[in-house]
Structure formats: C-alpha cells, structure tokens
Amino acid sequence: xxxxxxxxxxxxxxxxxxxxxxxxxxxxxxxxxxxxxxxxxxxxxxxxxxxxxxxxxxxxxxxxxxxxxxxxxxxxxxxxxxxxxxxxxxxxxxxxxxxxxxxxxxxxxxxxxxxxxxxxxxxxxxxxxxxxxxxxxxxxxxxxxxxxxxxxxxxxxxxxxxxxxxxxxxxxxxxxxxxxxxxxxxxxxxxxxxxxxxxxxxxxxxxxxxxxxxxxxxxxxxxxxxxxxxxxxxxxxxxxxxxxxxxxxxxxxxxxxxxxxxxxxxxxxxxxxxxxxxxxxxxxxxxxxxxxxxxxxxxxxxxxxxxxxxxxxxxxxxxxxxxxxxxxxxxxxxxxxxxxxxxxxxxxxxxxxxxxxxxxxxxxxxxxxxxxxxxxxxxxxxxxxxxxxxxxxxxxxxxxxxxxxxxxxxxxxxxxxxxxxxxxxxxxxxxxxxxxxxxxxxxxxxxxxxxxxxxxxxxxxxxxxxxxxxxxxxxxxxxxxxxxx
Amino acid sequence: xxxxxxxxxxxxxxxxxxxxxxxxxxxxxxxxxxxxxxxxxxxxxxxxxxxxxxxxxxxxxxxxxxxxxxxxxxxxxxxxxxxxxxxxxxxxxxxxxxxxxxxxxxxxxxxxxxxxxxxxxxxxxxxxxxxxxxxxxxxxxxxxxxxxxxxxxxxxxxxxxxxxxxxxxxxxxxxxxxxxxxxxxxxxxxxxxxxxxxxxxxxxxxxxxxxxxxxxxxxxxxxxxxxxxxxxxxxxxxxxxxxxxxxxxxxxxxxxxxxxxxxxxxxxxxxxxxxxxxxxxxxxxxxxxxxxxxxxxxxxxxxxxxxxxxxxxxxx
Lengths: 485, 316
Hints:
The structure holds 2 protein chains of 2 kinds. Chain A is α/β, with parallel strands linked by helices. Chain A contains 18 helices and 9 strands. Chain A folds into 3 domains: 2-117, Rossmann fold (3-Layer(aba) Sandwich), CATH 3.40.50; 122-227, no CATH class; 239-448, no CATH class. Helix content of chain A is 51%, strand content 9%. The longest helix of chain A has 29 residues, at 311-339. Chain A is globular. Chain B has one domain. Chain B has 12 helices and no strands. In chain B, helix 1 crosses helix 10 (222-247), helix 1 runs parallel beside helix 11 and helix 4 (70-88) runs parallel beside helix 10. The longest helix of chain B is centred in the N-terminal third of the chain and has 38 residues, at 2-39. Chains A and B meet through helix 1, helix 10, helix 11, helix 13 and helix 17 of A and helix 1, helix 3 and helix 6 of B.
C-alpha cells in the first residue's frame, strides 16, 4: 500500500488533450502548462492517465470523449477546462486527484466493470479517433461504405444491435465483425479498414473528422465532416482571427505580423510533430508560447498606452528583453527546419493544390510549410520582408506596402474562414490514394481553422452576434464524400 | 569445479545484464535530458524521467481492447527486452563474452530479427488500427534495413575471417591492424543506420510514430508498455555495444584495461545515436526503401567486395 502510494506520487501525468472548436485559447494554455511542468502528452488513451477536455463540446464531441474516457486505464482523472485562466488550477486538481490512492479505491469499487475495455466492446468503435478501433472492426463492403453501420459509434444503440446480430453468426474477436474486402485501384480484392481520424487525435485540427477507407495503409476514399463547437449557447469565436483582428487595430507597427507569426508557429510545430520531428516540434512549441506571450503583452501595453501610465514603459522594456532572447532562438530553429534536406525529401510532392484554389494554400505541402516559415521570419528580420510581402498579400492580411488601409477584424476572420473552407473542400480529393502518413502530413499542412469557419458562419447567420441556435450535432460541411478513384 | 564454473557464468550474466540495463537507462535519461532542454524545462530534473515513468507504468492498469489477443501482445512485449538480453550474450565486455559462440555474429542478427516478431505481435495483438499500422510499418522497415544490415555484419566477419565476435575484436587489437571502421566505413555507417532501424529509434521511430497515435504501442499500457519502451532502449544499447567489437576495435585502447574501453566506446556510440536521432525528422519507409535497396544495398556489397580483396591481398 505504502509502496503503491509512493510510486503513484513519482509518476508524471500524461494528459490526453481533446479540443473543441472554439477553444484554441484553452488548448494553448494547457499545452503551455503541460510543457512547463515537464508532463508528457499522451498519444493514445491507453497511455493517458488524465483526460483533458479543452472546452465544452457538443453531443458528438462528448460522445467521443466518453469513448476515450472508457479506454483510460486506472488510475485516471478527467477534467473539462472551459477558460484559459482556469487551466492551471484545473490541471493542479487533476494531478492531485491522480495521487489520491484512497479516492481511487472508492471510485474503482463503484465502477461497474473493473476492466472497462474488455467489458464494453462498444466503446472502441470509431469516433474516438485514436480510440483504438479494432482492426477487426472494419466490416462492410464498398457498397455501403458511407453507411453508419461501419462507423457505428455515432449511434451507440444502432451499433449495439448490429453487434449482437453479428455475434450470432459465429464467434468473432470481441464480438466484432471481420474486415470485408473491396476492389482496390489495381483491380485486386483487398481487406478494407475503416479508420476515423479525429476528433481525439494528437496534433489534429480541432473539430475536424476524416473518415478513411483504407486498403493496406492507402486511403481509398476520405469523407470530411466537422464537429460543432460550444453548444452551451455561446457563439464560437476564432482565437487567431480575434487576436489578428485586435492586432490590426493597434497602432503598434509589426504587431499584426507578430500575431500571425505566432499562429504560423503553432501550425508549424504541429506539422513537425506529424512529420515525426519531435525535437524540432518541442522547440517550436516553446517558441510559439514565447511569441504568443509577446503578442499578448504588446496588445495589453498598447491598450494601457492610451491611458498613459508608467506601467507601459516597464512592460515594453520587459517585452523588448524577452524578444532579445526569443528571436535568436526562433532564428536558429527556423534555420534548422528550413535547411533539413531530409524533411524536404520526405514531404516533397505531397498534397498539391492548383494555383486557382486559394493563394494561401496553393502548391504542395512543402510550399505551405515554407509559407509559414516566411510568416515567422518576417517578424524576426523585418528587413528581409521582400519574401514576406507576398505572403501577407496571400490572404492573411492585405499587403501593407500596397494598401495602407487597416484590415478590419471582419475581413481577417472571413479570409481565415475562406481558407479553411477551401482546405475542407479540397481534402477528399487530396487524401484519396495517399498513404496514411501522407494523409496526416497533408491535413497538417492545410491546418484548417474550423473555429474561424464556424465563427463566421455563426456571424453570418445571426448578424446580431448572440443567438441560441448554434448548429448542433454533426454538420457535414462540404463532405464531398467518396472521391474514390 | 563444475559449480564454480556455473557460478562464474551466472556472475558474468548478471554483470552483463546490469551493464546493459544501466547503459539503456543512461540512453533514456540522455534522451529525456535533451527533450527537456528543447521544452525549456529543467534538463537535470529530466534525468530521473525514465525512472519516474517506470514507477508510473508499474502500477498502471493493463488495458485490453475488445477482441485483443492479449497473450500474443504480451509475448511480444516480453520478447523485445528478451531479444536484447540474448543479443548481448555474444558481445565481449573486455576479452570474453558471456557465451562466446562460434557463430556469434549470426546469433546477434537472429536476436535482433526477433524484434520484428515482437513488435508485430504487440501491434496485431492489441487489436487497434494504429497498432496494426505500426506493426506493419515495422515489417516494412525491416525489409528496408535488414539486407544492408546483414551485409554490414558479414563484412566485419569477412575482415576477421571468423563469425566469433571476440575473434573479430581480437583481429583489430593486433599490432599493425587498424580498427575495422577504417577499412569499412560504409559498413559501419549502414550498421549504425540499421541499429536505429531495429530499435525503431530516432528517424526510424515511425512504427511507434506520434502521427499514428503511438503505433504499435498505442493500445498497451502498464507493465506491457514498460517492457516495450525498455526493450527498445535495451535493443539500442545492445546494438551500440555490438558496434564496438565489430568496428571500433573492441577493448583496444591505451592505458586502461579492455572493459572500460568497451564501456566508453559503447557510451559514445549510444550518445551519438540518441543525439543524431533528434537532429532529423522521421524517415518515411515508402521513400526510404528505395534508397535502402538502390543505394545502401549495392554500397554494402561493394564494401564487402573491397574488404574481401583487402583480405586476399593481406592488408587486413
């Protein structure tokens, strides 16, 4: 007993993060705290002891979260963090709960199934993303690929009856149907595997769900859908668009670029994670936190500047000092990433989008990644803005050189939403015929801002901003369905 | 007499395993140290990281997915560290290996190939799509690195004219002979590369890759996970230790006796491997296989040919 308590106290928590669209600020706060505390993020529910839900989600999200929760082995803790300010306290509470041996004893006594995963075949099914859908869970032939029987999970009751029906036929592993076969592109009959990416997947855009039909590890077709964000009556706001909007209003030069660099760093670190470059991704995450902090301090210092307090000077000096150490690190990091031949070789030629689509997304994965890097380097070396001018013109914000007009927050949101919409529309075509690893890289390189999409949609539908009817449930946005070739 | 020999053998085994374990922990701690530095947290505190993770995993519930073949997965998790322990039996720490087989090189190779089975069993047995993808990635990886790897091993054996690992080390220690890394640099580099491959470490960690939610390890927790993670570092360490007698002159070195030199060289190889593993992004197998078969394989064959000629001419 004593020993177990001691071992329990030694362990470093492994939180598993799930983010609802509209909760990017919470995710950023949690990621920062997790990094600073030296915790390590769990990649799958089996490795996690703490389920951290960033934001309150809709029913679909909660269902997925429920399935993930069932897969967490004991000892475990679950928290919902609705506001970035509360993140620290919530994580503290969860960490304390993880060390409470007596508490676990009581909980486990109440728990109906001691081995939760074995007793509840349902919880594995689909939706939960990394939620270990069994490989036997594939079932269904090509004909009813899109039907919900294979994807079950979305409808617990339906799949339950499905399961029991299957059980009668013969004994199957875990009472799950076996993989069925379908014709592949070479005219062979191969096993089909149904895999749902998102919403519970590390380094994945919040709210995005991609349903893949895999043969081998090649995606035969992809179906895109989007989870509804906060359904507790709040209108969804897009974190990055709001921040960019605020920065565009401020008189301070370079503030907009700073925010856009922070956003690019966030996307880039996620991409590097997906590309399997943990080391660079970790550095990127640290630098993103730094850039974001600098951007936020900037905006607060300009706010107070109008009131003319002495605090601003201190704050400014502080942020200048921080940049003095932060920027060289950013430069070094960017140089390493930019010069990596191995990275370029490994991502070259993937996910090509034509020029016509959207200037912000055109080109292949490499081009999009380089564009993020340009977004970052324009802050680090304003002199080298020549390359960056073009970037700014590409949708994030109007080119300051050409049009001196200040971009208003609305247009920034609209452009981010438009970019996300283009990305979602293009995804099914891009993903079909790609390897699973390439699928992840392509999605990470597009990094659609679903928040912005939903915030804009909410804004358009209800021009007076607040109104109860936020779209609930699953809103299949632009699901071009099977683009099976 | 017999019992004294047995107890001596037992001591050797224990000593060998302790060394292996300590070095593997050091590699894991070094890796945690570097990670913490990147994250901007205290690197020194991170040195205890692997130990704390061990404590955590020891008391965690083992997770079993519905329909999982728990037995298969658990055999796999045990097999991985076991393969590493069996592999070090033939590596001489100083003059003598624990069991100096006459076919030590082949034994090492066989043990390292056990990792294929182990990872595949874990991935398949845990009945998770990610596990399955990760397991099959490892097999693809094996197909890519294994042939060049075998030619690299054979090259060292050809140089010494023996498959006994201590013989190979002894040849390099003779006066007038250089370390094999000088005669066969390509084989050495390929060996290091494939070492990262069979320990699925660094750029070759895609079988347990982050983008597939941990791959082969996605569905396992508790002691199973501990064995898998530990087995990985043990394999890496065993491979690094094998590089020393094969290419780096075994216990050869001035002043000190043989065993500190072997240890020192192993630590150096290990540190370099862990460091290099972080400098580069992951290598995707569908792209690497081409390089492996079209570049590395011919390269190692040419290397073997060159070394054979050196032996015939009498340079080695």
